[in-house]
Amino acid sequence: MKYPIGTKYLTRGKHPRLCTVTDIWKTYDFRGDLVHKRYVATHEFLGQTVTEVDLPEATVARGVWALKEKHA
Prior knowledge:
The chain is of the alpha+beta class. The protein is 19% helix and 47% strand. The chain has one helix and four strands, in the order E-E-E-E-H. It has one helix at 57-70; strands spanning 8-10, 18-28, 34-45, 48-55. It has a four-stranded antiparallel beta sheet with strand order 1-2-3-4, covered by helices on one side. Strand 1 (8-10) and strand 2 (18-28) form a beta hairpin. The protein starts with 7 loop residues before the first strand and ends with a helix. The mean pLDDT is 94.
């Protein structure tokens, strides 16, 4: 996997949140070929853990890049 469980990234927008990848969903067809890959991530909001599901890899990639830029 390109982004393993535990990868941290920032969301986009006016108030970015620090998220952590917590799971990876993979869907296979009847031949055993990988046809769909999505990420699951969590972040804290007002003391509660919020889970975001069905995140594309591009969302995580942009967030990882944004986090690196912030700390550079």
